[in-house]
Specification:
The chain is mainly alpha-helical. The protein is 75% helix and 1% strand. The protein has a single domain, classed as MetI-like fold.
């Protein structure tokens, strides 16, 4: 009892010691560090909303939600649907490629690969995430597009199919890594129980592991969609700047990020409607990615299996 009192007295003395300023300063320091991301996000959102409001005040809603986009014409028009169309097509192509490949890789790594093979393959897959996106863009333009043109003669030099495929390759590590983590979180006792009942590895993977990790798998796919929507350099280099509203993926389309890159190169004078359209497109892109992230969090919490 005396020892306990002595220890408590020592702790109280340390807390109340006026010379121990570090104990009082560090919590404030940690709070400031934790608040930086929040303050930055608020600052970005305010910048987008304030400048985008000037665009919405100058352009009628009917024109904004039209298919006519010609911001540099003598009589400019600012229909945003061609940009949404191009962004959705590249994202859909990317996720159609990344989801099955990434999910298959995660099943193999978590359920079938030995520890030695896993330690070898996983870093190789994750190397894809470290390649600069501008390198992916040149790869799409100089290698994938010429290759596809031999298979699809009508394919344009700038098109949506090529950057969509390369974006899918880029986000494979995200799908693989997050899905594998979810699969590894399924308790071994559930898998061992299935094996005890005579299930094969494939049956355990599809009937036990994947259903148990479904929330994490869906979240990984949605986060990958968010990453693909915000991709810039691949689509800027390989997709082109055509502002036509079309459903032909063999032709050039412009995405929202491509539009922002084009106009920030100096084509739009500061203070013009075209200049403020950048912030409107940026705000729409922010809303899209925020919606994907919130949906991923909702699915993760809604369908999470607790063991």
């Amino acid at each position: 009892m005396k020892d306990n009192i002595k220890v408590r007295d020592i702790i109280n003395d340390n807390i109340s010691n006026k010379k121990n300023t570090l104990e009082r300063i560090m919590p404030v320091f940690f709070l400031v560090m934790a608040s930086i991301s929040i303050v930055t996000t608020i600052g970005i959102l305010l910048t987008l909303v304030i400048d985008a409001s000037k665009f919405f005040a100058a352009v009628p809603i009917r024109e904004i939600f039209s298919t006519d986009l010609a911001p540099l014409n003598a009589n400019p028009s600012f229909g945003i649907l061609p940009l949404i169309n191009g962004t959705l097509f590249t994202t859909i192509i990317a996720i159609l490629l990344a989801a099955p490949i990434g999910l298959s890789a995660s099943i193999y790594l978590s359920q079938f690969a030995s520890d030695k093979v896993r330690r070898l393959l996983k870093p190789i897959i994750e190397v894809l995430a470290g390649i600069p996106t501008i390198v992916y863009g040149f790869f799409a333009y100089s290698f994938v597009t010429p290759l596809l043109m031999k298979l699809i003669p009508s394919l344009g030099a700038k098109n949506v199919l090529s950057p969509g495929i390369v974006m899918g390759i880029m986000i494979i590590p995200m799908v693989t890594s997050l899905s594998e983590d979810s699969m590894n979180s399924v308790p071994d006792i559930m898998k061992e129980g299935a094996y005890a009942l005579g299930s094969t590895k494939l049956e355990v993977a599809f009937k036990v592991v994947i259903p148990g990790a479904m929330s994490g798998i869906l979240s990984s796919i949605l986060l990958s969609v968010s990453r693909a929507i915000g991709e810039t350099m691949i689509v800027t280099i390989a997709s082109g700047s055509s502002k036509n509203f079309t459903f032909d993926i063999t032709q050039s389309m412009q995405t929202m990020t491509g539009y922002i890159v084009e106009f920030t190169s100096g084509d739009a004078a500061s203070g013009t409607t075209g200049y403020y359209s950048l912030y409107a497109v940026g705000l729409l892109l922010f809303v899209f990615t925020l919606g994907m992230n919130m949906l991923a969090q909702y699915i993760s919490h809604k369908y999470r299996e607790e063991y």
